[in-house]
Amino acid sequence: MSNENLPPSAVPPQIPIRPGLIPLGESAEDRMPVNGPVSAVEAILRQPRRIMYQLRQSNSGTVIGSMLLVGLLCALVYGIVIGSFSMGTQLWAAPAKVALGLLISVIICLPSLYIFTCLSGSRATLAEVFGLVCGLLLLMTILLVGFAPVAWLFSQSTSSVVWMGVLHLLFWFIATLFGLRFLQNGFAHSQARSNAGLNTWIIIFMLVVLQMSTALRPLIGTSSDFLPKQKKFFLAHWADNIDASSRTNQITAAR
Fold first, then answer.
1. 186-199 burial, b if ≥16 CB within 10 A, otherwise e?
2. Cβ contacts of residue 64 below 8 Å, gap of 6+?
3. What is the biggest distance separating any 2 CA atoms in the chain, rounded to whole angstroms?
4. Could you state, in order of their start, the residue ranges of all structural domains in the chain?
5. How far is 142 from 203, CA to CA, in rounded Å?
6. Distance of CA 34 to CAs 59, 83, 126, Å?
7. pLDDT 10s digits, 37-80
8. What is the pLDDT of residue 73?
């Protein structure tokens, strides 16, 4: 039965798209295929709408796989830069922890994002939601690789673990903001009635990633153990490192 045969009161109202938002696929550039990892990187940097459009197509698995692969490779590259501060085993341990931590964070946070998406009235499928998160990961790690030369310079010219931690957190925060902007733009095309769920998820995601960096410590510095034996909240971990750095500086000054 078509809507034309139904009385006006029985026809479900169309969910309006955000005013001023051009629907995906209306532009010929949106419909350009994304073939492989290189094309995915170019699209996410220059034409993110291509990614959003392709995530709604039947072959979205290829695009998602390309973004996830490149995102993890970029995480490994930035992890090597982090490990170059301490050298030794950290040259392979830090990259593994960075890539693994981001992947686990995505897996942990994906179910809650999909639930929030459904509750908001969005029509996005699970595959599309996962693709948007992979796009977030890809854009975030590409930006981190862009910051890598600066991070390497400071890692070779300072011995302060606290300062390097602050620098890496600053770069991560900037990169995450750009990645979340891509996610928000993609969410805007899903005909959601509210952004409350997405905004809540963003806070959850950032907390999870920060806690994961503590759960997989050390990323900066050295330790006799690959993984920590003591459980810590990330704020407590930061406070302990700042306190230890202050005591070291006081001892050095006394000498």
1. bbbbbbbeeeebbe
2. 55, 127, 130, 131, 134
3. 90
4. 23-254
5. 22
6. 10, 33, 20
7. 999 999 999 999 999 999 999 889 999 999 999 999 999 999 99
8. 97
Q: Residue 85: is it exposed, middle or buried by C-beta count within 10 angstroms (0-12/13-18/19+)?
A: buried
| Mean pLDDT value of segment 209-231 | 88
Place of tokens 């969005």: 122
Q: Where are the alpha helices (DSSP H) in 13-89?
A: 36-46, 48-54, 60-83
- Does the bond joining 218 to the residue before it have cis omega, within 30 degrees of 0? yes
pLDDT of 102: 96
pLDDT in tens, 198-211: 999 999 999 999 99
The SS3 call for residue 219 is: coil
Token pair for residue 197? Answer: 């769920």
